[in-house]
Amino acid sequence: MTLAAASPGFLSPTGVEVAFLLVGLVTLGAAVLSVTTRQLVHAALWLVVALGGLAVEYLLLTAEFIAWVQVLIYVGSVVVLLLFGLMLTKAPIGRSPDADSGNRPVALAVAVTAAAALVWVVTDAFRTTWIDLEGPARGSTGVTGEILFQHWVLPFEALSVLLLAALVGAIVLSRKKPEGERD
Amino acid sequence: MHLAYPAVLAALLFCVGLYGVLARRNAILVLMSVELMLNAVNLNLVAFDVWLRDALHSGQALTLFTIAVAAAEIGIGLAIVLMVHRNRGTSDVDRLRDTAEPRRGDGDTDSTDEKAEAAA
């Protein structure tokens, strides 16, 4: 889009960039801990930190509404659901030595390879791209609501049908079968 | 802000989730890793939406849809995991091998299982 000289360099970061970087490090560290810890409940709690950090990143990218939806749905309900699931499946409290399966080295190799390839491609492609965060917020609740109900009404309604189907499906799946009835 | 920061963070989060999906044994931990991958994609969508200044806000609308689909996914996934746990007494994904192909010489299944997993 522009030459490298035309966009601000990486050596003089703005305040938003510094904040983004710090929160990003916390988010990434929490995510790594969440997939490597051997205590199952701690994994869910580190997931809260990672998802909350992502909400802060959305705020820094001026997407306010998404940030609060993230806090409400992910931190508020998804993690609680996961914790309930851990408790209902009688997950062991404390360290469980068999939290990782046998193909851990292969998984590590695949993840590191994918990370190296993706980061290389992404930095090469977007080295000089600059996001202009000035001006009014791009994702305030008013803007998002107008767009959602003017241009995206049909997908929105389809999504509500999907949620209803998921609700019914979850109830059917987790219902106890009455005695004598076989499936 | 440089677009490289959110893009690289999203790529790294996605790979952390990928590692979790492949390496975890408990089905609920696998679901957590899937959530991490979905969130990485959401961060990408928001960053590119803010960069491109799309008049329709496609990125943010799609992010909201992804969040809703992820909520539905986690509900159904947990219901399935709970049903499997109720029927079989375990939620470890590598013990659910009913549809796996039978191996040649399946005498001592445990040791061959371990070897095959290490080789896989």
UniProtKB/TrEMBL annotation, chain A:
Recorded coiled-coil stretches:
none
Q: Name one GO cellular component term.
A: plasma membrane
EC annotation? Answer: 7.1.1.-
User: So which residues are the signal peptide here?
Assistant: none
Q: Which reaction does it catalyse?
A: a quinone + NADH + 5 H(+)(in) = a quinol + NAD(+) + 4 H(+)(out)
Location (main, coarse): membrane
Provide the top EC class: translocase
Supply the PANTHER family for this chain.
NADH-UBIQUINONE OXIDOREDUCTASE CHAIN 6 (PTHR33269:SF17)
Q: Tell me what this protein is called.
A: NADH-quinone oxidoreductase subunit J
Q: Which organism is it from?
A: Streptomyces termitum
From TrEMBL, chain B:
Q: What role is this protein assigned?
A: NDH-1 shuttles electrons from NADH, via FMN and iron-sulfur (Fe-S) centers, to quinones in the respiratory chain. The immediate electron acceptor for the enzyme in this species is believed to be a menaquinone. Couples the redox reaction to proton translocation (for every two electrons transferred, four hydrogen ions are translocated across the cytoplasmic membrane), and thus conserves the redox energy in a proton gradient.
- What GO molecular-function term can you cite, just one? NADH dehydrogenase (quinone) (non-electrogenic) activity
Gene3D superfamilies on file? 1.10.287.3510
Which family would the database say this protein is a member of? Belongs to the complex I subunit 4L family.
Q: Region Disordered: which residues?
A: 93-120
Which EC main class describes this enzyme? translocase
- Transmembrane helix among keywords: yes
Transmembrane segment boundaries: 61-84
Taxonomic source organism: Streptomyces termitum
The reaction(s) catalysed by this protein are:
a quinone + NADH + 5 H(+)(in) = a quinol + NAD(+) + 4 H(+)(out)
Q: Which gene encodes it?
A: nuoK1
- Which residues, if any, are the signal sequence? none
Its GO CC terms? Answer: NADH dehydrogenase complex; plasma membrane
Q: EC number(s)?
A: 7.1.1.-
Keywords (alphabetical) are: Cell membrane, Membrane, NAD, Quinone, Translocase, Transmembrane, Transmembrane helix, Transport
Q: What is this protein called?
A: NADH-quinone oxidoreductase subunit K
The UniProt record lists the keyword Chloroplast: no
**What is its subcellular localisation?**
Cell membrane; Membrane
Which residue windows are coiled coil? none
